[in-house]
Amino acid sequence: MPTEEQGKPFQRILLMIRERSKEGQLVSTKEILQGFKNQGLWIEGKQIAESNHETLLSGMMKEINDLREIPDQEGHPRYYSSLLMSEAYAKILIRKEGDPLLLITNTVRESSATCSRPTPISLFLGPPFMLSQEEIDTCLLRMREDNQYQDIRQTTTSIGTRFLYSTLYLTPDRGPMLAEWIDVGQVNNP
Amino acid sequence: MAKYGGWAGKVLRVDLSTGRISKEGTIEKYKDVLGGTGLGYKVLWDEVKPGTKPYDSENKLIFGVGPLAGTGAPSNGRTAITTIYPTCWPKPLVATGHFGGDFASQLKYAGYDGIIVEGKADRPVWLSITDGKVEIKDARSLWGQGIRRANLDIVQELGPTACVAAIGIAGENLVPMSTIINNVSHSAGGVGGVMGAKNLKAIAVRGSGYVRVAGDKGEWEKVIKHHLSLLGANNQHVVPNSPQPWAEFSHPGVRWVASKGRAWGAAQPPIDTGTCDPHDLNRIAYRTNNAAFYLGKIAWQYTVRGNGCTSCPIRCHTLLRVPYLPEKYGNGITEYIQSTCVRLIFGRFLYKSFADGVLGRTAFDACMVGVYLIDDLGIWDNYGQIERDFIKIYYEGIIKNKIGDAEFKSYSWDKYEKGDPSFLFDLIPRIARKEGELATVLGRGTGALFDQWGLSEGEWKKDEKIGYWKMGHPQHHSNLEAYQLGAIINTQYNRDVQCHTHTNFLRNGLPIKEQKRLAKDLWGSEDAVDDIGKYTPMNINKAKMTRWTLLRKELHDSLSLCNWMAPVVASPLKERGYSGDDTLESLLYSLATGEKVSREELDGIGDRIFCLHRALMIRDMGTKEMRKEHDTFPEWVFKDPQNRAPFTPGTTHMEKNDLNLGMDMFYNLLGWDKATGSPAEETYKKLKLGYVAEEFKKNGLLL
Predict the structure, then answer these.
(1) In terms of Cα–Cα distance, which of B513, B514, B600 is closest to B552?
(2) Does B648 contact chain A (CB < 8 Å)?
(3) Chain A contacts of B341, Cβ < 8 Å?
(4) What CA–CA distances, in Å, run from A48 to A45, B319, B570?
């Protein structure tokens, strides 16, 4: 921790946010305020009233450069440290709290757009997504039936791995070729 | 005190015909070419006459290491083994095999920068090097033993810190497709038979010295820490393959496979690889698990740890413990298997399919059996070519037509077609023993299919799937992933190009937008690199990157920096904009040796070494017409299986005029003649290779 942060009333909360970010978790306002309360904060010999805890939080946000805020599904802020968590990861965590269909489609579109790469469906089984195969299968079915997701295409590589890509960003010529390259070509050309 | 640090100062010369052992000064003879491949090329130029055959006693086998071997520089475990290659077809020419492990550092600690092995012993011998004490020892008790046994016997004699580079039965039997292996799994391909022809079973090295770093020690430590801070996972992949808290990007195709929940299951206790924040330098070794990358998730449960070379935190050789192997497959197979890269997948690659898929248990077992056999018998896979050839010649009925009925029936083809790993015990030992027509042809390499079986090389050059490039060898990171650059570099060597400079960058996992931003700084324009499946016409910046790619390859091979990790021109660090440091090689060289050089000056030495390699080819082929006679492309490079036009999204196939323009630009940047592909006289002189120009003047090979 930078020395200028030591001794601040929010030092322990800051540590908690950073620790949780490192572990891949966001922190809610409620958790922070509860933390302040548990600490029984004192500044210059005076205890800070609970009604001032939100002011302390906004002060902490202004003062600490790596603290970031991201709105959750209801628009409430969640906090993380940009030293230890990327915005991309924080977005996944927020999406994870909502409809798994949106989690999958947004991830696939972003990956196709930003990185020009299809997404293996198996990615959603592991962290941070942790969807079950049943949830994934349900989403794939819903995707096929909903006009909003007709840009999401599925392609299967020569060794049977299923990938998704968005035709908004990758052409049907390129999406399957990229999936085959990622899944088979790179391994066969070590 | 020696003027220069880095180098040990002596090169060992061992004449096996006479038993004479001598030492000569490295600096006086080889400093201009650094070491490694440079040293090997220089010895061949000075001492081996054109027309020398691989197994002639006049051929030499040069083990070269560089000034960074044995220092604290990351990934410095490389040894280059240079000789006239037995698998180079139709005419054997210069090439190099490379291995990692601890051989390079032990050699330096014993006081040597290289070993020149010449002549031929009159009986099987092994070479024992313990510091200043060098002895040629009787190897009759080792001859006929596998590499593991030979290794064990010698280590028992010399002690556990000795590093043993040995050949297996394949090398003893002069099988061209054979390896020299040290530390049981670090192999150099194509050179085992040359060692066997010299009746040399093994070289064992144990050193108790050190490598002196001439520069400021504090500065050296700073550069090492800086270098470590920029490292990614194997092949310098700088993003993880699944989302991690710290990572802005992830890419499913990269070798950074660590993640919470993915554990080395056979470690005791199992170790979770975790999120591996790139700032945590004590967890670099957890990032890579090449068994899991190549063999799929099944490998995690059997992973003990990553193993690797001297001073390399990457540990790309995964050590696996598979307890059921001995009982299931017998034949002496051990439960511990260790390997990486193409050798790890040899067993699987040899089959067309498996009932439970390529990531299933059977394929996994095939890989384990394959590693066990080829690493003990010392067989080379030629970057997967032997496997691709085998599938083609079996399923096209060529084997059945070319070998006698009795021999054909002696193989258990039903097992092969079913994907049964035990078939490997039927085939692979026969290759090592040259037993029968099929095994002998496979052991000679792809060229044997053409001159012994009369198959057409042209057919091999038509088919992208067979992966063949030319001269008996396959493509290696070619146009299939690096377009014009990949195609051009694949023309330049007498075996597969073994170059990772470019692919370490192109496959690093960063989005193309980030790669282009870095490319602008490195090669002058974003246009130097293309997005995969979306390549653009040739331009001068691509040519600059091509030149840089090959010069750095030669530099790494000569300095003893691993070209499977270097260069480090991208990093996992967002705060650096993902940039690495293109000056690392020159920083390390300057501090280690005490001779301060800039990046450009060091690249100039790489240019000299690459040009000397070119000169050797010109001399030994006896022609200046390299563009026409040597630097050729197979037909498949220009043929899209789906008939898509060049530059169409999704294709990786080239346009002839565009690629010819690329060759023009590449030759031009090197100071080579565009028409012939031969270096100009002034280029030789500029690179301090005037002696080459003088010789070529005499025999008409100068432009």
Answers:
(1) B600
(2) yes
(3) 190
(4) 9, 57, 48
Distance CA B568, CA B338 (A): 26
**8 A C-beta contact, residue B65 and residue B111:** no
Omega cis (within 30) before B511: no
**Model confidence over B187-202: pLDDT tens digits?**
999 999 999 999 999 9
Interchain contact, A86 vs B293, CB within 8 Å = no
Domain count, chain B: 4
Partner-chain contact A86 B245, CB within 8 Å? yes
Clarify whether residues B461 and B498 are in a common domain: no
Q: Are the beta carbons of B252 and A182 separated by less than 8 Å?
A: yes
Structure tokens at B517: 């931003």
- Please answer yes or no on whether B252 and A128 come within 8 Å at the CB atom: no
Q: Which of B35, B10, B13 is nearest to B22 (CA)?
A: B13
Q: State the pTM of this model.
A: 0.96
C-alpha angle with apex B66: B61 to B67, nearest 5 degrees? Answer: 150
Strand partners, A153: A165
The DSSP secondary-structure symbol of B166 reads E
pLDDT tens profile A40-60: 776 666 777 777 777 878 888
Distance from CA of A97 to the nearest CA of B (A): 16
Fold: same for A3-87 and A99-188: yes
**CATH number, span A99-188:** 1.10.10
Last residue of a domain, one of B340, B370, B400: B370
B261 inside domain:
yes
Q: Is the pLDDT of residue A5 over 80?
A: no
Element (H, E) at B307: strand B303-307
∠ CA(A21), CA(A27), CA(A33), 5° rounding?
A: 135
CB contact under 8 A, B253 and A186: yes
Indicate whether B412 and B294 sit together in one domain: no
Q: Treating both helix axes as pointing N-terminal to C-terminal, what angle do B361-377 and B147-158 enclose, rounded to 10 degrees?
A: 60
Residue B460 is assigned to a structural domain of this protein:
yes
CATH code, A3-87: 1.10.10.10
Check residue A47 and give its pLDDT.
Answer: 73
Contacts of residue A171 in chain B, CB cutoff 8 Å? 649-650
Q: How confident is the model over B120-179, as pLDDT tens digits? A: 999 999 999 999 999 999 999 999 999 999 999 999 999 999 999 999 999 999 999 999
Min Cα–Cα distance to chain A from B508, Å = 12
Mutate to test the interface with B, among A66, A95, A186 (most CBs of B within 10 A): A186
E strands along B119-270, which residues?
Answer: 125-130, 133-138, 163-167, 179-182, 186-189, 200-206, 263-264
Residue A75 — left, alpha, or beta (φ > 0 → left; ψ -120 to 50 → alpha)?
left
Instruction: Name which of B245, B294, B512 is nearest A116 (Cβ-Cβ).
Output: B512
Ramachandran area for residue B175 (φ above 0: left; ψ -120 to 50: alpha; else beta): beta
Q: Pick from B304, B302, B255: which is nearest to B276 by CA?
A: B255
Return phi, psi of residue B657, to 5°: -65, -40
Q: Across the interface, do A85 and B246 touch by the CB < 8 Å criterion?
A: yes
| Domain region containing B524 | 476-566+598-699
ipTM surpasses 0.85? yes
A177 contacts B480? CB cut-off 8 A = no
Ramachandran class of B254: left when φ > 0, alpha when ψ lies in -120 to 50, beta otherwise: beta
Q: Do the domain assignments include residue B584?
A: no
Name the closest residue on chain A to residue B649, using Cα atoms. A174
B342 touches chain A (CB under 8 A): yes
Within 10 angstroms of residue A180's Cβ, the number of other Cβ atoms is 20
Tell whether B101 and B193 lie within a shared domain.
Answer: yes
Summarize the confidence of residues B403-418 as an average pLDDT: 98
Q: Which residue of B has its CA nearest to A88?
A: B248
* Shortest Cα distance, chain A CAs vs residue B69, angstroms: 25
Quickly state the pLDDT bin for A6 (edges 50, 70, 90): low
